Amino acid sequence: MKWSLECAGPPALCCNPSHGPRGRGAAGWLVRPVLAWLGLKASLRPREACFALPQGGVMPPHSKVFALLVLSCALLLVACDGNEGAASHRTGDEPKGGAADTAPAPQAGWKTSSWALPRGGQTLSGRVDDRLPRDPKIEWSVELDGAVIADAAIADETVYIGSIMGTFYALDFANGKERWKFVTEDTIEAPPTVALGKVFVGSNDRFFYCLDQKSGKMIWKFEGADKFISGALIVRSADDSEDWVVVNGYDGICRCLRAKDGSVVWTYETDDQINSTPTIVNHDTVVFGGCDMVVHAVRLADGKNVNKVEVDAEIVGTLATVGSMTYSANYANQLVAVDAFGKKPAWIYQDKDFPFFASPAVNDEMVFIGSRDKHLHAVKRKTGVRAWKVKTGSRVDGSAIVFDDAVVFGSGDGRLYALNPKDGREIWRLDLGEGLSTDPAFAKGRIVIGGTDATLFCIVGKQINE
Predict the structure, then answer these.
(1) pLDDT exceeds cutoff 50 at 32
(2) Nearest Cα to 408, choosing from 394, 395, 432, 427?
C-alpha cells in the first residue's frame, strides 16, 4: 500500500529541539525514531514540520496502526512542550536581550504615536488615548549600564532613557539597539522631554542638558546649585516669539530658559527643594508642588507668583491636573486635590501610615496612585472617597498610566499590572523578573518600562477593536 504523510503546523507543533525557549519540540526524541522506523523523511524548520515517505515507500500493513498511535502521542507531547514555551512568555520568562518569538507585531491605528513629554503630556495626568493592548509579550529587552530609576520618552521611533550611572541612551524603538549615548557625571533621575529637534534632560551632576535629538551632541547645558530631577515643560513665550523651557531644580528654584541657548528668562525661588515636573494651567500659569509644602502657581510671562496653597507636608512627586484642579501626594501620607487658584485643598485622602512616593494618574472619574503599602489606590476624583485598592507583592513607587479601559503600573515585586479602572479587577499581569519603580511609557501599541536590575523592557500586545 503506497501512501505519504505531510504535516505542517504552527510553532507549537515544531519538532526542532532548538526552536524557542525551554527547548520547544524536545519530544522530538520520540518523533524521530518513529519516523525513521516508518521510513519517513523529516524536514524540520522553525515554523513547520513536514514528514513524508520516500517516493514509492511502503508501510508494512501489520505495523501501520501501532506506528500511527505512537506518532500521534509524540506529536501531542510536542504540542504540550510548545505550549509550555509559550507560557513562559506570558509570565515574562524571556531571556534578557531577546525578543519573544510569538509576540504579536504592533498594528496600525494606535492613536498614541509618541510619549515625548513626562507623564505623556503637559497635564502630567498619565492619560493614554487608546485601549489596553491584550496578551502582552516582551518584544525586546536590553541591559543598560545601571539600574533605571528615570522614566523613558518615546519619539520618532526612538526611546530615550537615563541610568543611575549617568548615561543617557537613545535606542531604536523597534529592537532596542543603541543609536547614540551621552554620558553625564552623575545619576539621571529626571524624565527626558523631546521637542523642537532636541532632547532636554537633567542630571544629578547639577546640569540641565539640551542635546541634539538625532546625534546626541550637546547643544548647551545650564548649571544649577543642586541636581535636576524634574522633567521639563516646553512652552511658547507670552508674545509667541520664542520657545521656552521651564524646569525645576533641587535647589528650590523654578527656571524659565530659552530653548535655543539656555539663557535665563526668569527665575522663581521657593523655600525648599523641588522634585516635581512643572505643568501649565490655562495656557498662562506654571503650577508645581514643592518640599516647602506649597502648591505654587506662577505667571508664565514673568515668573511672578499668582497663588499659593499650603498642604500638610512636603510634596515629593509630580502633580497631575484636570483643568485648574491639581492632584498631588505628600509626606503626610496624603493624596490632596487643590485648585491652583483656590485657597485650601478641595479634599484630602489618607490611608494608613505609608507614604505615597508615586505621582497620581487621572481620568475623568478617578485618581490612581501607588503607595508603599504595596497597593494601588483608586480615589473618586470629585470627592476624594476611595473606590478600591489592589494589593501587589511589594511597594508601588512608580506612577500609573491610564488607558481608556485600564490602568497600568509596575510594582517592586517585578510585575507589570493592568487593572480595570472601574473596580480594580485584574486584566493581565506580566512578570518581568526585576523590581519596577518607574512610570511606564506608551506609544504605538508598546509599553516601555525600566527595571532596578538595569533592564529596559519593551512590551507589545494585541490591539482590540472598539
Answers:
(1) no
(2) 427
